[in-house]
From TrEMBL:
It comes from the Eukaryota. This is Uncharacterized protein. The lineage of its organism: Eukaryota, Metazoa, Ecdysozoa, Arthropoda, Hexapoda.
């Protein structure tokens, strides 16, 4: 975690500070998801690599003492396993983020390509 400077308001009393410290004492720091070593060369949108572990983008960092991971980091396992399976299988597709105008031109080009392929197929079958 990054270092941060904590400033305490002037109107805080010792009781307020005790309450905050007691609340923090009842919390654990989220351990994160699986180790990077289990999922090499994989990237997912919902997680990032943090100190040799995968961590969810929505990680709450502080959790109740009931577990080691937050619910968001627990869900990463499924995403990473699916990405690993798809990359090994060779069905991993890269998604492009394109503006609507460019997407329209790409779609028209794809449609023209299909039309030309149909025409060529018809010419071959007529001969």
């Amino acid at each position: 975690f990054e270092e941060c400077e904590i400033s305490i308001p002037n109107d805080w009393t010792l009781i307020n500070l005790k309450n905050v410290l007691n609340t923090l004492a009842n919390k654990n720091v989220c351990y994160g998801g699986p180790s990077q070593n289990f999922y090499p060369n994989i990237s997912v949108r919902t997680a990032f690599k943090h100190y040799n572990r995968w961590r969810s983008i929505n990680c709450s960092k502080l959790i109740d003492t009931s577990g080691l991971n937050c619910s968001s980091c627990n869900k990463i396992y499924n995403s990473l396993t699916q990405s690993k399976y798809r990359s090994q299988k060779g069905t991993m597709k890269r998604q492009l983020i394109i503006s609507p105008r460019r997407m329209k031109t790409i779609l028209t080009l794809k449609n023209k390509k299909k039309l030309i392929q149909k025409q060529l197929y018809r010419k071959k079958t007529r001969k």
